[in-house]
Amino acid sequence: DAVLTLKGIEKTYNIGKPNAVQVLHGVDLTLQRGEIVGLIAPSGSGKSTLLHIAGLLDRFDAGEMMISGQPVAGLKDRARTQVRRDRVGFVYQFHHLLPEFSALENIVLPQRAAGVSDAAAKARALDLLSSVGLAARASHRPAELSGGEAQRVAVCRALANAPDLLLADEPTGNLDPGTSDQVFDMLMALVRDTGLSALIATHNIELAHRMDRVMRLDAGRIVPA
Ligand code: ADP
Ligand code: ADP
């Protein structure tokens, strides 16, 4: 029961031009339901490119990709947006919360975009905030939260629409080691609880080895770490 399947994925920027650069040379990767995979990828290796392709934010040139068994290559923009919104959650190194909205509202907004009623969206947002120990921070704006708290809210936002797949790019890379550990533990617990699959890019080898499996992006391909 694969949530994400990548087969022979290739990606070249500026394809056909003199400054073309091939970043992915045939990426093969399958994430089974509930599996948490660590991705070790040196800077410049194509990590962001890979995560953007996996999250349907960018297109690939060759290969096959499936989300929960559904091929995505032929989808038009509207359908891609829908798959992304309903099935994929993103966490970045920086929280990217909307500064003028409260923690609660930041978790409500993606649900509203998916057509969830306001009352249901608020209830779910509060549940998520409670699960990361932040119920008391619901009405705080991002500037009123610590770095670790803001990142916990960002994780809640990523899970707001109950995705099948969580894609995280250095989710604790901007935090001090103690806070990083805390946020990581919370992220792992939430992912385990909800049974979703996660691909988590990190430079932190110790954190990576707490996941189910660790892979490395090397010369445009995925190899065991
Ligand atoms: P990472 O996230 O591992 O640092 P990226 O996926 O951002 O790597 O980039 C991998 C390579 O692709 C780099 O050499 C980068 O310069 C190049 N690249 C990334 N985005 C573009 C783009 N939009 N146009 C051209 N080259 C790009
Ligand atoms: P860029 O693609 O040049 O980095 P964007 O404004 O497109 O800038 O996006 C800013 C960041 O937000 C990027 O990291 C991008 O991958 C991410 N992003 C864009 N659209 C979405 C989306 N619908 N869901 C999640 N992340 C997104």
From TrEMBL:
GO MF annotation list: ATP binding; ATP hydrolysis activity; transmembrane transporter activity
SMART domains in the cross-refs: AAA
Domain ABC transporter: 4-225
EC number: 3.6.3.-
One GO term describing the cellular component: membrane protein complex
InterPro entries per the UniProt record, alphabetical: AAA+_ATPase, ABC_transporter-like_ATP-bd, ABC_transporter-like_CS, ABC_transpr_LolD-like, MacB-like_ATP-bd, P-loop_NTPase
Pfam families membership: ABC_tran (PF00005)
Protein name as annotated: Lipoprotein-releasing system ATP-binding protein
GO biological process, one term: protein localization to outer membrane
Domain of life: Bacteria
SUPFAM superfamilies per UniProt: P-loop containing nucleoside triphosphate hydrolases
Coiled-coil region(s): none
